[in-house]
Amino acid sequence: MEASFFLLFLLTFCSSIHSSFSTTTTDLITTNQFIIDGETIVSSSGTFELGFFNPNGSSNRYIGIWYKQILPHEQTVVWVANREKPLTNTSSVILKVTEPGILALLNDKNEIIWSTNTSRSVQNPVAVLLDSGNLVVKDANDGSPENFL
Ligand SMILES: *[C@@H]1O[C@H](CO)[C@@H](O)[C@H](O)[C@H]1NC(C)=O
Ligand SMILES: *[C@@H]1O[C@H](CO)[C@@H](O)[C@H](O)[C@H]1NC(C)=O
Ligand SMILES: *[C@@H]1O[C@H](CO)[C@@H](O)[C@H](O)[C@H]1NC(C)=O
After folding, report:
1. From ligand 2's centre to the CA of 91, what distance in Å?
2. Using CA atoms, how far apart are residues 133 and 42, in angstroms rounded to an integer?
3. Would you indicate the residue range of the signal peptide (predicted)?
4. What is the whole-number distance in angstroms between the Cα of residue 64 and the centre of ligand 1?
5. What domains can you pick out in the chain, each with its CATH number?
6. Cα–Cα distance between 66 and 126 in angstroms, integer?
7. Choosing a second label site near 48 at 20 to 30 A (CA), which of 5, 31, 64, 81?
């Protein structure tokens, strides 16, 4: 009896480690793979992380990029998306890529809170957090920096 409880606990523990691991291993945001508050994307070598954060002593929530290796209380934010549009309630807010190649922060009514813009469109737009700390919108199948949107 005790052994089977322990096994169940172990399995639950392992699957929770697995799921928390797999949610932090992408460096991509796509048209159907978006992030919500509490989720992040990480650059391929683990240098930078993008997600929602609160600056010191503020109740405002922002989307930003910070150095992943630094301890959370020493968080060094290197870029802020919605600096002019702080959020107080992120419960239905998502960050996703929309056609034709725009990275947008949307509310539950699908209204744009903040977005990038582009003069060109691509077939399959994705946003990638690079190890240089740059966040770029590009075609999923085109790695040439000169074609980044
Ligand atoms: C937050 O406060 C600490 C201590 O006052 C400071 O060292 C740190 O730089 C601050 N972080 C930001 C993002 O302002
Ligand atoms: C936050 O927003 C959600 C949906 O937009 C709403 O249901 C909820 O009541 C809001 N919470 C607060 C504290 O305003
Ligand atoms: C986005 O860019 C297009 C083309 O450059 C421009 O016409 C449009 O006004 C821009 N939209 C916003 C919201 O800045």
Report:
1. 6
2. 10
3. 1-22
4. 15
5. 25-147 (2.90.10.10)
6. 20
7. 31
* Per-residue confidence band for 17, with pLDDT thresholds at 50, 70 and 90: very low
DSSP 131: T
CA–CA dist 116, 129 (Å, integer): 15
pLDDT for residue 22 is more than 70? no
Helix (H) or strand (E) holding 65: strand 62-67
Rounded Cα distance between 37 and 53, Å, is: 8
Whether the predicted pLDDT of 6 surpasses 80: no
pLDDT band, residue 108 (cuts 50/70/90) = very high
The two tokens of residue 2 are 């005790």
Residues contacting ligand 1 via CB (< 6 Å): 55-56, 75, 77
